[in-house]
Fold each of these.
Amino acid sequence: MPSKRTKCSECPIRKLERFREFTEAELKFVSDFKTGELDVDAGATILDEGAHSAHLFTLLSGWAFRYKTLEDGRRQILNFVLPGDLVGLQGSLIGEMQHSVEALSPTKLCVFQRNRLPEVFRNHPTIAFDITWIASREERILDENLLSVGRRSALERAAYLLAFIYQRAEYTGMTRASRLSIPITQQHVADTLGLSTVHTNKTLKKLSARKLIKWHDRSCEVLDVDGLLQVAGWEGLSEQQRPFI
Amino acid sequence: MPSKRTKCSECPIRKLERFREFTEAELKFVSDFKTGELDVDAGATILDEGAHSAHLFTLLSGWAFRYKTLEDGRRQILNFVLPGDLVGLQGSLIGEMQHSVEALSPTKLCVFQRNRLPEVFRNHPTIAFDITWIASREERILDENLLSVGRRSALERAAYLLAFIYQRAEYTGMTRASRLSIPITQQHVADTLGLSTVHTNKTLKKLSARKLIKWHDRSCEVLDVDGLLQVAGWEGLSEQQRPFI
DNA sequence: CGTCTTTTTGACCATTTTCAATCAGTGTGG
DNA sequence: CCACACTGATTGAAAATGGTCAAAAAGACG
C-alpha cells in the first residue's frame, strides 16, 4: 500500500556508473515522463499478480522482491529488486502483471505513466534500447536462478543466492567495508531456494559455522563473499556497466 | 554446427495470428535485415555459452532448447525454442551468450545481422517494441518455470512441463487432432525439471498410467492436455496473440 | 547381427520435508 | 517495569521424496 507521494526529484541512481550519458533531450523527456515519487513501507505490496496498473516504476532506494504463488499458497520468490531495477514493465507490455512485487524495507519508487511507453520507443530509441537491455538482464538472472534451483545442492544454492545478492548490492553501492546486511527472513531465503524453512535454517547454519555469513534477526550479514562464491562453485557476476532509466 | 545456407524466403511464421500487420516499409526493412536461412541438424549446437555471434536468429521450423551447465556437467534446460522465438537476442544486447542453444530436431533458422539491431530501434520503433515484448514473454515463461521447479512436486512439474509445451506448440499450429509428439528424451525432461533420469522415468510412468501421455522412443506424445493441466494444478497459457519478427 | 542410445527396474541411500515444540527478540498495554 | 502476544529462529525425530548404483530390456541404426 503506497503511503506517500511527492514531486519527483533528481534520480539518485544517476550517480552510478552508466553505459553512456543521457542527452539533453533525453533528460528533459525522462523528467517529463516521471510523474512523481512513491514511498512504500516494508512488507507492503507494490504490485499484485493480475493488476492492470497504469504505472511503471524504477526502484530508487530500498529492497523489494518479485514472487509468484500456487493456489494452495506455496510461494516462489523469482528475484530481488534493487535500486535501478524496473518494476512493472510486464504490465506495461502485456497489460497485466503475472507476478507480485513486495517491499522488503521502506522503499522509494520513481513513477512513470505506462501508457507513454510507446512514445519512448517512437521518440527515444536509446532509452527504448536501455529498457530492452534491462529486460534481457532480468532474463539472464532468471536463467542463473533456474540453474541454481534445478541443479545445485541446498548448500550451494544458499551460498550462490547470498553471493549473488551481495554482488548486485555492491554494484549499486550498498555495501560498506565489504559487508552487507540484507533485510530478509529465512522464510524469504527458503522461498527463493525452493526449500522448506527448516532445511533452510540448517543450511544457513552451515554457512554461519564457516563464518561466511552471520544471521541477525530479520537480516543476513554477508561476511565473506569469496567464501560463498567458492561454496557455490560460481564465478560471480561479470557485469560492469549498465544503463539506468 | 550449421549445415546449409540458402537465400531467405518468405517467413512461414507469417501465417500465424499477429498483433498487427507490418507496414510496407517494415516488410521491406525486415526482408533487408534478413541475411539468409540456416538449416541445422538434430542435436547440433546453434549457439554456445560465451559465443560472440554476429547473428540473431528466428526459429522458422523445428525444435530447440536453451540450457546452462555447471562446471561438473550438471545441466539445466531453461526453456524450449519453438517457431517464432528469437534466438541469440542476449548476445546482441550484451555481446556475449550466457547460455547455449541446441536443436532437438532438424530446424530452420532465419538469420539477422546483430549489429543492425540499433538501426531497428532507431528506425522501426514498433519492431523494437515487438522485440521487447518477446523478451518480456521469455521472462514470464522463466518465472513460471522457476515457480514450477522450486515449488511443484515431481508429478506436478512433469505434468506442467508437458502441458506447457503442448500449449505453446498448439499455438504455433504444430498439434494434430489435439495430439502432439515432442521430440525429446527423458534426459531432456529430467534436465528441465531438475530431477534425475531415474525419477523422471518413474514420474512419467505415472502420467502414462493415467493415459495422459504415451512415451515413444525419443519422443513424448501428449494425449490429454486437460488431464495434465489438472494434475499440474495450472490454468494454462493465457496468451492469445503475439508479435512475430 | 552387433553396437549404441534410451528406457526401465529394483534395492538401497541421502536429502529434504513435515510435524511438533521450544526459544529468542520485539512491541504492547497495564 | 512486567505479563502477554506475536513473529521469526532453532531443534529433534519420523516420514516422504527423490537420488545413486547397477543391471537388464528395448529400440534404433548401420
Amino acid sequence: MPLEIPEVVINRLPLYARALAELAARGEQVVSSQTLGEMLEVTPAQIRKDLSYFGRFGKQGRGYNVQLLLAKLREILGLDRQWRVIVVGVGRLGQAIVEYGGFEPQGFHIVAAFDADPALVGKQVGRIRIRSVDELDEFLRREPVDIGIVAVPARAAQEVIDRLVAAGVRAILNYAPTTAHVPPDVAIRHIDPVIAMQSMTYHLKLRQGTSAK
Amino acid sequence: MPLEIPEVVINRLPLYARALAELAARGEQVVSSQTLGEMLEVTPAQIRKDLSYFGRFGKQGRGYNVQLLLAKLREILGLDRQWRVIVVGVGRLGQAIVEYGGFEPQGFHIVAAFDADPALVGKQVGRIRIRSVDELDEFLRREPVDIGIVAVPARAAQEVIDRLVAAGVRAILNYAPTTAHVPPDVAIRHIDPVIAMQSMTYHLKLRQGTSAK
DNA sequence: GCCTGTGAAGGATTTCACAGCC
DNA sequence: GGCTGTGAAATCCTTCACAGGC
C-alpha cells in the first residue's frame, strides 16, 4: 500500500462506508460508483479514483460487492476494532457527548471522563463516574487511550490537549471553539457549529441583498 | 466585489474573525499575516490572498488594524446582524443545542424548537417551549427563519430538510448522521463527530502498526 | 453493453517571490 | 526594514475518456 494518500481521500472514506452500511442493511448485493455517487453527491469518477488508492475492489460490468467493499473500507479505516476514548470536560456539552449513543455502536468505547470542577467530580453520567482532571496524567500512564475528546472551555483547551499529547494520545476531537496546536504526528478534528453557521451566513447575506444601508 | 469567491476561502474567514476577536480582547491594535497565521496554522500568504478577494485592508510595513479587519470580516460574513434559527428534533442532542450558550452571543437567536414526540411537546427547554413538528409548516409561513438546525434521527432528516427548504429556509446545519440533499441555492453543513473520528482512526491504525495478524 | 481502473488533462488552490509603500 | 497585495509558478485535486474485463 503506497504511502501518500491525500487527506481529502481519507476524509471521504467514512462517508462511503456509511452509505455502504445503509445499502447492506437494505439487502443490496452490488452497487455501482454511479449509484453510490448519487447517494453521496460525489462524482462516480471520484469514488473510483479514491478506491483505486487502496486496491481493486470492483468488477467491470457489475460494480462493487457491497459487503466486500464495506469490509475493506472498515479494515482500511480501522473500524474493525474497538477504540478507547476519554472525554475531558463534562459540563453540559461533555455530558451530552458521554451520553450520546452514537459512539459505542461504531466501536468508540468511552472509558473515562474528567472535569476540573469539584462539584462534578464523582457524579455519575450514564455508565461513567466523572474523575478529577488531576487524575488525568496518572490515568493515561495506567490505561491505554486512543482518542481524547476535548469539551472544556476554549481557554483551557490547549493545555488539556498538550497533556493528552504528552501522554501519547494520537487523536483529538476538539469541541472547544479554538484552534489548537498539535505535533504533525497527532490527528485533530474540530467540531464547531458556530464556525459552520458563520460560513453559511455569508451566502444568506448575498441572497437577501445588501438592503441594509 | 467580484462574484466567484472560492468556498474554501469563505470557510476560513470565520476562523480569521475569531482569532481577530481574541486579539482585540487582548488589546492588540495591529497584527501581521505572519502572526495571524501562527495563531491559526495557516500560511501568511494564504491569509493575504484570501483577504485580497474582498479588498485591501492592510498597510505595508505595519500589518492589519485588528478592529478594522474584524469589522470588515463581520460585515462580509454577515455577523453584524441577528439571524433567526430554529431547531428541529429536541431529543438529548437537540436539547443540548437549544441550551448551548454559544449561539446567542454570536447573533444566532433560537426562536423555536420542534419535535415529533408527543411526550416532548409542550416541555420547556431553557427559554423555549417545544412545539409539535406538525406546526412546523405553519410556523415557517408566519415567522421568518434564516437557519434550520436539524437534530432528528437519520431516517427522518431528509424529509425535515425538504420541508425547511420548501418553506424558504436557505441554510441548514445538519446534526443527523446522513448525507442530505439540498438544491444548489441552499447552504448546508454537517456536524458529525463519528465521521470525524473515523477519519482519525485511519492514522491511528498506521501508527500502531498492522500487528493484528 | 455495462462498469471498473487509471493515465492524462483540466481546474482549483496554495505558495512563491517581489514590486510597492509605510 | 517590514509587511502587504498580487501575478506567476507550483502543487494538489478532480474530471475526462477510454482500454480492458465481465
